[in-house]
Design a protein that fits this description.
globular, three-stranded mixed β-sheet
């Protein structure tokens, strides 16, 4: 983008922000920056402008590069919620694209400030995640200098292999489990027993041995937290890396769990703000509207069968229907309270599903298309299935044996996706490097028979 184009685009930012505020959007300040396309791809792959180094990000970068060269992917912007928010725009964007993207980012900023899931996770992590991630990167670089690349990379292998295995229903900062089971007798409303229960455990043990609580006391889904807290021989710098990965995963979870809502909300608002932005030149407006049409189009066109649903298209269409039927105030209440699970289940109607041709269908070799089913609940399950459990298999810690063996359990009954056994074995090997004790994982094979994977 030339200097002149850049100046023209920047001149619209303030006016778009003022228009958005007058239209009812409430957002933290956003810092906009135009960056080279290569850096845009790095940000998109790493998930943050500066992040801990690891070889897996290089693999993702190559994939993204191939997709772009094949014409399958183009990144206009990457936005990071926070206070302030950070938005990076590609320097190759034209004026119209950047005007649209600016309006789109303001929609995201409104969503992330007011959605309950975003707000809860940001309050625990920080509204300054870009700076926190840079601090994590520096911390890991120091670990590399102190302990060597090979050792640090082994810890990152394990932590990043488990980055989706967190429990956002629990707090980011958690205490260890209680060491002892509660004494049932101490629950009696008796002054003597309350005083006895308050005695030092050693003194109390002279009268009655206390029973140790099992670890964990219940299936534990937060594998990153459990390993960082209970690994028998983990060094402090290794625990710090696990906790840094976990903290960043808490930040990313709302982005993942509200993608349909969030992209749809931002798309609705960029279209609305553009219609009302009478200060945007006519040609730039027309170009921006064409760009909007490209963004919110279904992935399949004509009689081609879609392999995936465009979240921009689905979310935008759902918000349009909700606002048309129930009004903007109701839409804002939904935006504040829902995630994609409740949004799709409560507001994707049969009427809209039929209008968007979302029901399952099959394209025959002669070109005819046959609808396979019109089960709304089945459609909703299909759309939401990849989102369960942060997109990862449902695996929890079942038991920690006295000898330090870690027992993991795959909830195959609830997790219909099953396990990739080859990947699972690799992940167990990664984790064993930091757990330094045997690990077993119970699951089932493709026939439903019990199967146990292990790393010793």
């Amino acid at each position: 983008m030339s200097a002149t184009q850049s100046g023209d685009w920047q001149s619209y930012v303030r006016r778009l922000e003022e228009l958005a505020a007058r239209s009812g959007l409430s957002f933290h300040p956003v810092e906009f920056e135009a960056v080279p396309d290569s850096f845009m791809m790095e940000i998109a792959v790493y998930g943050l402008p500066v992040r801990m180094p690891h070889w897996s990000f290089g693999v993702r970068y190559i994939y993204q590069l191939i997709q772009r060269h094949m014409g399958h992917s183009r990144i206009f912007e990457v936005v990071f919620p926070g206070n302030p928010g950070h938005a990076y725009l590609a320097q190759s964007n034209g004026i119209a694209e950047n005007v649209l993207v600016t309006a789109h980012v303001l929609g995201h900023a409104d969503f992330s400030r007011n959605n309950m899931l975003f707000r809860r996770c940001q309050e625990q992590v920080s509204e300054h995640i870009v700076e926190h991630a840079a601090s994590h990167a520096r911390q890991i670089q120091q670990a590399i200098e102190s302990h060597g690349l090979k050792r640090v990379e082994a810890v990152l292998d394990a932590a990043l292999a488990l980055e989706q295995h967190i429990d956002v229903d629990r707090k980011l900062r958690r205490e260890r489990y209680p060491e002892y089971l509660p004494d049932a007798k101490a629950l009696v409303d008796d002054e003597f027993r309350r005083r006895f229960a308050a005695l030092d455990p050693v003194a109390a043990g002279a009268f009655e041995a206390r029973k140790r609580a099992p670890i964990p006391p219940h299936p534990e889904r937060d594998l990153l937290w459990f390993i960082a807290t209970y690994a028998p021989e983990m060094e402090s710098w290794e625990r710090d890396i696990f906790l840094a990965v976990r903290e960043e995963s808490f930040y990313f979870y709302p982005v993942f769990a509200t993608q349909i809502m969030n992209e749809g909300w931002a798309s609705y608002w960029h279209a609305r703000l553009l219609r009302e932005a009478d200060f945007v030149p006519q040609q730039a407006y027309l170009d921006a509207i064409k760009c909007h049409s490209d963004v919110v189009r279904p992935i399949a066109a004509g009689q081609q069968v879609a392999l995936a649903i465009n979240p921009y298209h689905l979310g935008f269409s759902m918000w349009e229907k909700i606002i048309e039927k129930e009004g903007l105030e109701t839409a804002r209440e939904i935006m504040q309270q829902d995630d994609d699970f409740s949004f799709v289940r409560n507001h994707l109607t049969r009427e809209l599903a039929e209008e968007l041709s979302l029901f399952r269908f099959n394209a025959r070799s002669d070109g005819q298309i046959k609808v396979l089913e019109q089960d709304l609940h089945a459609l909703q399950d299909t759309l939401l299935a990849p989102k369960y459990n942060f997109g990862a298999p449902s695996v929890s810690v079942a038991h920690l044996r006295n000898d330090g063996t870690l027992e993991l359990e795959h909830d195959h009954a609830a997790d219909s996706r099953g396990l990739d056994l080859e990947r699972s074995r690799k992940v167990l090997e990664y984790v064993r490097q930091v757990w330094r004790r045997p690990i077993v994982l119970r699951t089932v094979d493709q026939n439903g028979s019990a199967l146990e994977l292990s790393a010793a």
